[in-house]
Structures are given as structure tokens and as C-alpha cells.
Amino acid sequence: MHTKRDSRISGFYKLSIEERIQKVKEFASLDDKDIAPLRRGISIEDADRMVENVIGKFEMPFGIAVNFRINDRDYLVPMVTEESSVIAAASNAAKIAREGNGFRTSSTEPIMIGQVQIIAKDLREAEEIILKNKGRILDIANKQDPILIKLGGGAKRIETRIIKDMLILHIFVDVRDAMGANAVNTMCEAVGEYIEKITNGDVNLRIISNFATERIAKAEVKIPLNIIGKKTADRIILAYKFANNDIYRAVTHNKGIMNGITAVAIATGNDTRAIEAGAHAYAARNGVYKPLTEWKKNGKYLTGRIEIPLAVGIVGGGTIHPLAKLSLKILDVKTAGELSEVMAAVGLAQNFAALRALVSEGIQRGHMKLHAKNIAMIAGAKGKQIDIIAEQLIKENNINVNRARELLVNLKI
Fold first, then answer.
1. What is the value of pTM for the model shown?
2. Does the annotation count 367 as an active-site position?
3. Known active-site residue 271
4. Which of 18, 60, 231, 358 is most buried (CB neighbours < 10 A)?
5. Which of 271, 321, 369, 373 is flagged as catalytic?
């Protein structure tokens, strides 16, 4: 049972790092042991165990998006990104979304597709043989992972497709709360020998598909027109129509969505490459690349929705990373499906924030403000000095570290 929590933290960005950590500790009931990885990261020895040829570590900023309300529950959302304004934009969009009762989300069962490529003299005959023996094929697959079966998952059905001169077997596997690559790949490899035997064919590739069309997350939001203004809403819809009719715009539209989703995926130790590839393939599933979101007016609201395949897990894989574990504890998600819904809501929030900025002040104002703050900090500014110097740099249109250092010398605080 989720405990009642409030993600509305006014002025979170104004707090010191230690004050922010304290707020997150209180929200997620964390102790000092939980948050220790925030300060130390992972050891070089852990890094060496994770990948090959390690010579060091590459760190990225770990931040928190506030204000998210999803299905009447509040979340603080961990995000890892190098891009300025992403976390601030998501937080601001989530704050506005609360005026329409936040985000409504849903997700399908965690079904992943494994593919087995078969070469045979008579593809139709091989297909018939496979379908007649589907029970045995599923039985062989499910013997590979008894724990998954015990949890209610496992291989559920098969389908076949003939593509030119090859037969493709699809195995649909309920992977429960894992991303599922290891389980699905093991099953695909296990059935290969049996398929060769009954078809007298040759099995080539046996691997998961990252086009997770059976594992869809959806999110919807209602933004009151009296909050953002009818003109802004009309221009957001016009911007969406631009993306819906032009691939050059659609790619950038969807990149903005993935700014948020990928940042959460990194924070939770999930496979960003699989998620990105699946999302962009889904955008082009009907033969034309389209935006992953849709915006329209409905009475007194601007309404937005997103539908996206999200193969994510809360166990296994990169979730063993100490900071991924911390992220999942902060989120307090109970299933992989719930995590996918949070990520869909973040993607929708990110898209709204980007479109709103683009149709009003432009995207650069927010970016340059944060860039100026970063330059001020590099110059050695602290506390209130950061905002004062950043404001002057923007005013002078001269955002460089040397000028920031000159301003810092003359500052009397």
C-alpha cells in the first residue's frame, strides 16, 4: 500500500544540495545508508565488474523532478541528464498539470517478443509443423526459467511470420518486473535445437526484439486553458500539427519527449538504447514517422496524450547499480508497469514544457539562463552571487567565464 506523499516542494531549486537531499529523505523515508551512493557513486572496482576495459568512471548530474501527481499519487522523480533545463521543465510542467488533477496513466502486461529465424526448403510446411507443436515449444521455453513461471510469467504464446525467404517465430514472454532480455534470449536459444529437428531446417538468429509493441505505456493530461491561456493552447496545437506533418520537426518533437524518459531510464538503471530504439520505431509503425504525443482542445482544457512502448524493469540488469536502487526507492514503484507509467507521464510533461516554451518565449531563454548560472558557478560564484552574475551575463549577452570572474571580483556580497 502506498503511503500518502506530497511532491509539491516550493522553491526546491533554491535549496542547497544538502537541503534537497533532506527533503528527498523525508519524502521517501530514506536513511543515511540509502543516500550514501549520492555522495560516493560507485567504486572503480564495481565499474570494472560491470563492463570491460575499465580505466575510470564517467559521472552525470543526478537530479529530482518535483510536483508529479500520477493517478492521484505524488512522486519525486529521479532524473540523470547532462542537459540544462530538462529537470526544471519537467517539474514546472508537472506543477501546471496538477491544476487538472495531474496525469492519468495505464500500461499493458509486460510482454516481450523473442524472435527465432528459421531457414527451410518449404517455409509453409515448416510453419505448419511449428504451429502443430506450439505446446512443446512453449514447454521447452518455460523450463528455462522456473522462477519466472512461479511469479506468473513465462512464455504465453507463439506466432509465425514469413518474410521473403525466411520463417520467423515470435515467442511472447511475460517477463513480470524485469526488462526481460536475459530470460527471453535464453528461451529463444533453448527452442532452436527442437525447431531444427522438427522442421529439418536451419535456425540462425535467436534473440529478443526491442520493438516492444506488446508493452505499451500511456499517459494523459488536462491543462486548464485559464492557466496557460487560449492563445498558447492554440499555438501548442499548431506546433503539434507541424510535427504530425513534417518528419524534420517530428524527430525533434520526439527527442524532447525522450529527454525526460531517457533521464529516468538512466537513473533507474534501464536500457536507454532499447527504449530509444523502440520508441522511434513505434513513431514510424504505420510507415511514416509521427510524433509520440497528441494535443487538442477539449472544452476548457488543453489535453495531451502519449502512447509509447517501454520495456523497463525494476529487478535485474542495471538496477543493481546503487544509485538505480536509490532511484527506485525514491519512486517507490511496486511493478515495472508502474515505472513505465511514471516514465510516460514524464515524457508527456517534457513535451508540454518544450512546446509551451517554443510557442512563447522560445527555447533558448531558459537554456541560456541555466547556462549563465553554470558559467557563474564555474567562475566561483556561490549562493545569491550565482543569480546576480547570471542575470548580468544575460543582460550583456556575454556569457563567458572570464566576464563572470570580473563580475565576481566586483560583487559586494
1. 0.88
2. yes
3. yes
4. 358
5. 271
